[in-house]
Write a structure and sequence with these properties.
Blueprint lengths: L2 H8 L5 H7 L11 E3 L2 E2 L10 H4 L6 H23 L3 H42 L1
Antiparallel strand pairs: 1-2
Helix pairs in contact: 1-5, 2-5, 4-5
Length: 129
């Protein structure tokens, strides 16, 4: 791939963290990737890009969730053993922390796969032409 074709394919693409946070489309940059907090939409409402054919991270979501759960359990256990906070305080703190970290990691993970497939698919089509 030439330098100009590579820069045209990735021109204007946001960073992965920003894309995951706001659900930005890899083609047009609009906030249309997610239909729900961690569910990828079928297509971009703005430019019509089919996200269904690009999303490939669905098989690994369970593995990611287990890894995140193990890390969170380890953190909760360490805090329990080190500080012994009251149970109600632990419930108040860990419920939103768990939900936020799991949804955030799923969004980031899905965006990484979606953007990687988008770049691979459209850089391959640039090479063919």
């Amino acid at each position: 791939m030439t330098e100009s074709a590579s820069s045209e394919t990735t021109k204007g693409l946001p960073g992965l963290t920003q894309a995951a946070l706001f659900g930005l489309c890899p083609r047009c940059g609009e906030r249309t990737v997610f239909a729900a907090p961690a569910q990828v939409a079928d297509a971009c409402a703005s430019c019509g890009l089919d996200f269904g054919e690009l999303e490939g991270g669905g098989r690994f979501v369970g593995l990611l969730t287990m890894i995140v759960a193990l890390l969170l359990i380890g953190m909760a256990w360490w805090i329990e053993e080190s500080f012994r906070p009251p149970l109600i305080l632990q419930m108040i703190v860990w419920l939103p922390v768990n939900v936020g970290i799991v949804i955030g990691s799923l969004r980031l993970f899905k965006i990484i796969f979606l953007y990687a497939r988008y770049e691979r698919r459209y850089s391959d089509s640039d090479n063919a032409s």
